[in-house]
Amino acid sequence: MGLSLNRNRLKAAVAATLVFATQGAKADDHETAEAWRLFVADHTQPVVRAIDFSDGKELARYDLKGYAALTASASGQTVFATQSDHDIAYVIKTGVEFSDHGEHRDLDISDTALLPVTFEGKRPFHVVPHDDHAILFYDRGGKADIIDEAALLEGKAEVRTVDTIKPHHGVAVTMGRFVLVSVPNTEVETKPDELPPRIGLRVIDEKGEQVGEVAKCTDLHGEATSARLVAFGCKEGVLVARPSGVDSPKLQMLPYPTDFPRAHTGTLLGGKAMQFFLGNYGEDKVVLIDPDAEQPYRLIELPTRRVDFLLDPATPRNAYIMTEDGDLHVLDVIKGEIIRKAKITEPYSKDGHWRDPRPRLAVADGQIAITDPRHSLVRVIDAETLKETRTIAVEGQPFSIVAVGGSGASH
Fold it and tell me: Which positions carry the signal peptide feature in this UniProt record (predicted)?
């Protein structure tokens, strides 16, 4: 199968991004400032640590009710600490704020803080950051909250709640005035401690009313946004939602190629500067998806099972994949090839519980920060050479990690 991503279109997008970045760095009458911060949750202790990436010093420690999954907002001004086992989500102010001024952007740096607003409901799980808000889905609560970030930063909660028909492990994503929401199977009988399977996706308007028919998407799991498209992983393929002006979004299923091995996508990442998606395909493969290509899929085999992966927002053609043998792989999304790899940690087997402590990845200032919970470290890896440049000691078992920051003009 030929390369599924359109090389010319993506190369042009990369060039445009680099030009924009160069132009945006010009602020002749201002000084340039830079700040990068890591937020690291412990695997067993109910704590999140804010760390200055430049020197590895702990800026603050926030005590929680339980283990937290971390999700940074689209702006990077807030981080959601979702404690599913304790039916609550906290929000941390990162203290990193950018404001756009056309030819440059300003950077304001302040202290991190635990915001006074919490969100309670039965088993909050997926947090989807989008523009100026985030959507928090409650698996056992039968609802999803659309949360305004500006209000959060003022210590207030402005929330629009969406009904999800019936409790299920699902997701909700906004698209203009519409919301895309997973659909549970309401006809199957489940045990009291079980949730029903997902069978599709529906579109609802600002009144909460369904628009059109439910689009089939068996075992819907995983979503991502790229450019103006949203993609969802299904057993049949990847379901893509496209905006359609004032009309409701158009939903299109991209079936998996018939010559692919039997598997499906359940985790998706979306390109920021280029329109494409990267998803898992089973446990030991990943797939590049270009929804506009004649052949949308490009399959890449890994030597062992995937532990974590992410896209580099500053280097759009790079994706980083950590496998259970302790190797870090760099995937060139334009070539569709693994272009280099290096041994980073000891092996971390995928066998066992899905939430056992294993490495997690973040990107900060051209470097890859990798948690190594077995050794109480965050390992800092140069993205070009894949050499370890330093380590950051973190008490306990550092696990979930996000990075926020960048450079801008300072007044």
Answer: 1-27
